[in-house]
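Q: What does the assembled structure look like for these inputs?
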Amino acid sequence: MERRVPGSEQMNWLRAALLAALISSCAVISSAEDRAIPLNQLRSGSEFLSPELRALQADAFANPGMLWVERGAKLWSTPAGSAGQSCASCHQDAAKTMRGVAASYPRVDAKSGFLLNVEARINQCRSERQAVAPFRYESDDLLSLTAYVNSFSKDYKINVVIDGNAETYFEAGRTLYYRRSGQMNLSCAQCHEENWGKNLYAERISQGHPNAYPAYRMEWQSMGSLERRLRACLSGVRAEMLPYGAQEYRNLALFLAWRAQGLPMESPGIRR
Amino acid sequence: MTARIQIPAQAKPGEVIEIRVLIQHPMETGYRYDDAGKPIPRNTIRTLNCRYDGIEIFSAELGPGIGANPYLQFTTVARASGDVEFSWVDDEGVAGSERQRLVVA
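A:
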């Protein structure tokens, strides 16, 4: 798993690898060198919130995202399709079967080879197993079920697979992450790796991690997916907004999850 | 519309208890426009009240000044076992309600 960011020096890397070999625990140290933000310096977006919003996120009752989680719980056992099967008919108690699952997404579906996020996985079950129309992106139903599934990964550490059949998706995501785009000609990295902690208008730029999503954003006055957040960043640099469900978002999401490897999941998070 | 009520499951007679309610509602102010430039009609929760064991213990007028998905909390004194029931109605006339049982012993 030798991942380097563009521009890191081969010599430094070699030296670190040598040092690492000497210290013996080589994997950990060489991957720290690979990462623009070393694993021990990862900071969740919640650390950049006001104390009030942090408290709201931590309040399992008052966190408005819990309204979606609760609705998701109802949908989980609502039958759909001619066979009258609900999610629960196959997956039983989500507290057991969905535990920790979302922390390993996006992941490649072994059968089709497609990279799926949780939303796409849910819609795959809708169309292939319940034989009903998939939920619309960003619909309350899809957000609710996603929030429900993700809630069973709360505090689980993000841990995604990036090699094997995931590698091309991962590489595509990384390329996109470092590519400048939009009228402002900025890459994701220029804000979230080079300038995190600084202020941008009324916002404080975080390291740009995906662990809170779907999240309740005060500006939206609603729950929104990671894709909706990424669209806000694209629109911020006045770049083309890709349609919901675009492959690029999933590739980016895989790269983001790898950058955030080990960060605890927070969904439903609260964000400004 | 999803709503959540939080009260203690059980209380002693005379005990001061906290009641919390969270209601999913867009609380559309009436001051916003959609993507086509058309004004979005106001739709907020108008009135919200809470009855405990059949007696009204709290009521509020809400409006455009309150954000989406309103959250309220207040306290009351536990008297007897009974339902704590919230009901509300919005500008479109859509009514909602949610209840939870309080056991006083």
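The mean pLDDT of chain A is 89.
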